Amino acid sequence: MKRLLILFISLLLVACSTSEKNYETPLIVNDIEEKFDYTTGKCLIGDVPVKYLSFDRGQEVSIVKEDDNYYYVDYYDLLLAVEKDYIRTANEEEFKEYTAYTRAGASLYSDTDLSTVIKYFSLNDTVRVIDSFAGLLLVQTDNETGYMLISSTSKEKISTYVAPRNNSSDSGGGTYTPPSSGGGSSTPSAPTPSSGDGEDISIYTNIPDSIVSYLAYENTLKGKILKDGTDAYITFMKRDDVVYVLNEENDILTILIDGLKASVERKYVRMDNEKGFDSINVYTRANSVIYSDYLLRNKIKTCSLNEIIKVIDEFEGRYIVELDDGTIGYIGKYDTSLEEIKIAAPRPSAPTNDNYGGGSSSGDSTPSTPSSGGGDVEWTEPVL
């Protein structure tokens, strides 16, 4: 019994000794590897949309907020901005399909930007109109689906204009001449075709100032996406925002936004290893306009001739300018000049030598300059 007790105590002492030894062994901690390998750049302009994902036509969304141009939808507790043109809410009436007739030369496009034509139509070809949004029709032909201008179709068959015939010759054998009403052509002109169901509507993306937001609303409104590939934006970047770039493919940058992957067009970002823009001063043309947005829609001020403005950058044919109060604006490069714009004074009209009227009674062949009461002749700078 004593032997067993001694053996137990010995084993216990050995265990304690081993445990103490392991505890004193230094703990080696490896550095945590970077989750993402990225490079950095800066955003060139304000209000740049950052795409998080795309929705497909028919997909249901929950709208929790809106402004003039966007619905903000709940997507797994993220608030994503979607252009209002591409959502039909539950409060709006469903679209009823119908058959339409095309105008001669009407085009079918593959996208809502109307950049790629996939088919041309003849007069009174029929198409199936399956929806209408953003000033366009979504139509279906025998084997293709695309977008058309509303003005390119009509709900009624389009009649072909036929000029009326002249009356036949009178009994005396002479040719009948229609009465003139002021010397104009006697042949009536063809009537101008009506636009059918509407007119061309210019569409654009209007991007508000915003930041990444998270869902904090209880009341929601259901809606349906109207177009395949409808972009949903997670944020809108401002000029000089730092951009964390993971990779680039086909002029699209994959970037990090609060640890989430999103994408933005390459043209909006200047990488840190690229040469920047050296600021310059330029002169404005008369009545040129400075805008608050790079799409040149919202006017800040109208400039007079040869105002000097500071240019801090350029983007797609626009100068980015900084006004005296620090406001950032945009102006078309064609509305400015690197040198002061000079407009020559108008020349006096050339004198007329009256060779047939006997000439001047004084015999002086030098024409006199018109007087304005003394001094230089004043003139007003023409408005460009």
Report the structural category. mainly beta
Low-confidence sequence ranges: 17-25, 169-217, 356-380
Radius of gyration: 37 Å
Q: What's the rounded overall pLDDT mean?
A: 79
Mind summarizing the main beta sheet? 6 strands, antiparallel
Task: Give the helix tally.
Answer: 1
Shape: flat
The count of strands amounts to: 27
Please give the share of residues in helix.
under 10%
Distance between the termini: 117 Å
> Helix-strand pattern, N to C?
HEEEEEEEEEEEEEEEEEEEEEEEEEEE
The percent range for strand residues is 35-45%
How do the strands of the widest beta sheet line up side by side? 6-15-3-4-5-14
Characterization of this structure:
The protein has 384 residues and is mostly beta strands. The protein has 1 helix and 27 strands. The chain has one helix at 2-24, and strands spanning 39-43, 48-55, 60-66, 70-75, 78-83, 87-89, 98-102, 107-109, 117-120, 126-133, 136-140, 145-149, 153-154, 213-214, 221-225, 230-237, 242-249, 252-257, 260-265, 269-271, 280-284, 289-291, 299-302, 308-315, 318-322, 328-332, 336-337. The strands form 7 sheets. It has a 6-stranded antiparallel beta sheet, with no helix packed on it. Strands 19-18-17-1-20 form a 5-stranded antiparallel beta sheet, with no helix packed on it. The longest helix has 23 residues, at 2-24. Mean pLDDT is 79; it is low at 17-25, 169-217 and 356-380.
